[in-house]
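Field reference: sequence -> structure
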Amino acid sequence: MIPETAAQVEPQAQVILSPEQNAEEQRWRQQLAQSLRTPKALLEQLQFDAQKIAEMSANDQGFGTLVPQAYANRMQPADPQDPLLLQVLPQADEGLSVPGFVTDPLAEAEFNPSPGVVHKYHGRALLVAAGHCAINCRYCFRRHYPYDEQQRSRSQWQASLAHLAEDMNLEEIILSGGDPLALTNNMLFALLDEIEALPQVQRLRIHSRLPVVLPARITSALCQRLASSRLQVVMVIHCNHAQEIDTDVEDACQQLQAAGVSLLNQSVLLDGINADSDSLIDLSKGLFNAGVLPYYLHLPDHVAGTQHFFVTREQGQKLHSKMQAQLPGYLVPRLVKEEPGMAHKTLII
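Structure field:
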């Protein structure tokens, strides 16, 4: 099982925080601990009646429900088609076995030279920094990833980084997961220290959904630590719908910008959620207003249990063309697909 709280990860040396920073740290960790963990709890909060809750509740197929209150608060009450609700509510279709939809569609296991490392791109490598998230998105391409086999502790990070240190062409390390910002400051800052000690590494890229789903995680202590890094820091957030962007998310993004962090967004085309041009255009505008540049628009992967979200290449191309016709170029994300064995993402023309 994927650990659900940062407390389940091996502790490290204590980071010294001011009283105000300690309050910020406790706030986001408490919000994470108070996340909604069953479909019933989520649907009750959204004011569905008992009959509708019974109709909408489904087996989670071993991928548990996890939704922070901050994210649930942006959902429309009693709306079964709410685009945020549909991203996190288990569906009966997840239990269907559909040909072509598999547990490891990107064949990441073939590029896993050391536990927690995915190394398939020249000059950069991905480090699975955490085996847990602050939210469980039902379309997640790593919902079947063997996190329990590759738990992250300081000794294991050192083994992973020792492997990466041998590649003198390595200029960028990507922190992914799980979600690296779901780690405590103690764990995250210790990992940053280790990465900064690799002389050939010039850039740090952090892939995180927390600025969107749990914006309280963007604390002054985190921003100070990122601002002080010798590395160029890029954060790629994950936002799929303009409804996900509220004032708290905007404030979190502004704090990161003030710390010198470059902000990009990647989203996934999802049927029933954002697979229409109006939603995608509103998303790009909302992101840019928050100081985030739309970067990637992914065609969904063939992940077992996610076929009900699938959008075809042809549908994606039509939607992308509509975006190009109505937006300036800098607001049009690149339409891409990640394919197993490829040394880069495939641009869809």
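Note: The radius of gyration is 19 Å.
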